[in-house]
Design a protein that fits this description.
The chain is mainly alpha-helical. It is about 45% helix and about 5% strand. The chain has one domain. Strand 1, helix 1 and strand 2 form a beta-alpha-beta unit. It is globular, with a radius of gyration of 14 Å.
Length: about 150
């Protein structure tokens, strides 16, 4: 893992986590991560859309619905911190050890995986983005009935 301070230093052809993407992240993205990397921007939501849509090159993917475990947005759907987004992608792509290592830095890190265990397991077993979308719809329907 490395931190870059300018967009031009993002790895070329990496998977870029982008909530505005039309394609859902799935296990099918694993090879691209292995070969080119995974990137997430840590910036204000006020500026994220402009930056992600105009300046970021690469393979954009949005994450499926997950619940935040961080103290600021705890329990809120789709309000993940940058580290939670990275961990979610790593879990879905089958990089569990790397995800655990990254979360171990945060006192609350285990909470994110615990509250999303069922979702992360299901998403990790999907074949592609289309299956992820179907699973996401089922999870959202179940959330509405609770």
């Amino acid at each position: 893992m490395r931190i870059v301070h300018q967009i031009k230093f993002l790895p070329k052809r990496a998977v870029v986590l982008n909530p505005f993407s039309k394609i859902a992240f799935s296990p099918a993205d694993k090879n691209r991560i292995e070969n080119f990397g995974l990137a997430a921007l840590d910036c204000s939501w006020e500026h994220a859309e402009k930056v992600l849509l105009k300046h970021v090159k690469g393979t954009s993917r949005c994450l499926p619905i997950l619940i935040a475990g961080n103290p600021v947005n705890f329990g809120k759907p789709a309000e993940l911190s940058t580290v939670e987004a990275l961990v979610a992608a790593l879990c879905i792509a089958g990089f569990r050890e790397e995800a655990s290592e990254l979360l171990s830095i945060f006192k609350w890190g285990h909470t994110f995986v615990e509250i999303n265990h069922e979702r992360l397991e299901s998403y990790a077993n999907a074949k592609n983005s289309t299956e992820i979308i179907k699973m996401q719809k089922r999870f959202m329907e179940n959330m509405e009935t609770c």
